[in-house]
Amino acid sequence: MKMLYYPENFPRNKEKLLIDLFRYLQTVEIKKVKKLDQEIRKFFSGKKEKEFFPSYWMLHFVYWRHFHLKMSKVPDFIKLSQKHQVRSLSGIIPLSLFTKPQGSCPFHCIYCATEKDAPKSYFSDEPAVMRAVRNKYDPYLQTRNRLIQFFLSGHPIDKVDVIIQGGTFSFYSKEYREWFVSEIYRACNEDIKELIVKGVTIYDLGIKRENKKIWSLEKQIKINESASSRAVGLTVETRPDFIDEKECWFLRKLGVTRVEVGVQTLDNKVLKIIKRGHTILSVVKATKLLRDFGFKTTYHLMPGLPGSSVPKDLSNLKKVFNDERFKPDAIKFYPTQIVQGTELLEWYKKGKFIPLNNTDLNKIVTEFKLKIVPRWVRINRLVRDLTKSDVAVETFASNFRQNITVKCPCIRCREIKNRQSTVAVEFRLTEYSAGKGMEYFIEAVDKNDRLYGFVRLRITSVDILEWLRGQKLRGILMSNLKSYGLIRELHVYGPQIEIGKKGNVQHQGIGTKLMEKAEIIAQENKVNYLAVISGVGVREYYRKMGYELKESYMVKYFLVNALKN
């Protein structure tokens, strides 16, 4: 007989005490977190465990294990104790996972850290890496335990955005990557709520890569389409010189929807100085390929590199969004930092490198946000969070982003988050050319330009279905009489709502209206079909709108004579 499941650090010797605490809290009117803390201290004040103060997640566990089935509604104090609400305000739960340190990247860029127990460019004391270490870099355990953590913090976990980090994803063997991703799906397919409530689950730990019948990628993907925790997005990190047609096809096989590319700079001289190992041409080719396959793209950019300057960095940023060969959907700023164990640190000690200071970085970021960034881009990060022990030379404040108060038209600055609007939502269209195709950014905004959702539509002459069938590996460039449409991203903002429930922005039909407008534009361009690069867990959503699964894409045909084989 299997033992009942308990979280690893749950104080089982205090379980009865926590049950009594829960019953006591039910008798008190609690409307604020401060009041909740006071009542918890009051409960323990006369007991021998008076120094014990339980974490909120322990209260959540007690509720689900012992009271959930007996109560008609969730107590107010449980709702109050939800941690880090901001994590689900973008409509998703982010799930950051790490691949193994061994063989994470073959290159030796001068700024990049190398630690034995962490993948290339990461440190073993970073919180996400520490979670991976505790789980021995096992993808199933990382996913399962993180989902449990989110669930016990009060977040809905039925829609997750998986982000695989750790060096260069494309450098690992295909077998390892397929197993790694399959184990992520397997963990998402487990019913976490049932595990917490009943203490048992049908899944077993310790599945080995050799047992392919159990971890079969295709099997786990199919299950995840209607699983309790659906992967609505899957992101990987890689280098531009590792992207080709075969790699794009393989990424689609895994269910990848977004690719983060280590671009760093668009200056070939700087790329050579930092020993990057590729040129701008690799970035151009990779961006074009990724876009034509429908992937969302994020550039990693590093202002302040050796050989650069403030004027060069600003010119570089303008080029990123003015040159149609580039134009990523999102960016992550990684201002150059001198970290432990790097060649760049030795350069600094010898006087060969002068880093950006706080004033220079502030100038770059402020001008970028005020004058350069388009409204169809999301700035995911402005500075990397590192511990003081990892940074060898501190040149700008670790809380730099918090000190930047300048708002810009980027997606992140305009997201509705937990704010509500009583005015009507209108739809706004922005068109721009990129990668020899046309991009249509359709967004739902209110009169204050607050963003409720958007869709990215690409019209191109590349027949992606023919490409993926492999009849011509290079793809088929059709005549001007034929066009093909790709939905590269659909996102609706607001607090995450569980699948099947209604409320707030995510279930006001905004997503459906955005898709309808994209379909109208697609038909105006006389496309044969519209293909959606859908996350595995969102396929059912598109099926309800008349789309069908073709070659890992959700597809709707518009012309009677369009091929359906």
UniProtKB/TrEMBL annotation:
Fetch the SUPFAM superfamilies from UniProt.
Acyl-CoA N-acyltransferases (Nat), Radical SAM enzymes
Do you know which Pfam families this protein is assigned to? Radical_SAM (PF04055), Radical_SAM_C (PF16199)
Source domain of life is Bacteria
GO biological process terms, alphabetically, are: tRNA wobble base 5-methoxycarbonylmethyl-2-thiouridinylation
The UniProt entry's coiled-coil ranges are none
Tell me what reaction this enzyme catalyses.
Answer: uridine(34) in tRNA + acetyl-CoA + S-adenosyl-L-methionine + H2O = 5-(carboxymethyl)uridine(34) in tRNA + 5'-deoxyadenosine + L-methionine + CoA + 2 H(+)
Give a GO molecular function annotation for the protein.
tRNA uridine(34) acetyltransferase activity
Q: Which UniProt keywords apply?
A: 4Fe-4S, Acyltransferase, Iron, Iron-sulfur, Metal-binding, RNA-binding, S-adenosyl-L-methionine, Transferase, tRNA processing, tRNA-binding
Q: Which residues form the Radical SAM core domain?
A: 87-389
Required cofactor(s): [4Fe-4S] cluster
Q: What are its E.C. numbers? A: 2.3.1.311
Give a Gene Ontology cellular component term annotated to this protein: elongator holoenzyme complex
* Annotated pathway: tRNA modification
Its family?
A: Belongs to the ELP3 family.
The cross-references to PANTHER family, in alphabetical order and at most eight, read: ELONGATOR COMPLEX PROTEIN 3, HISTONE ACETYLTRANSFERASE-RELATED
Q: What is this protein called?
A: tRNA carboxymethyluridine synthase
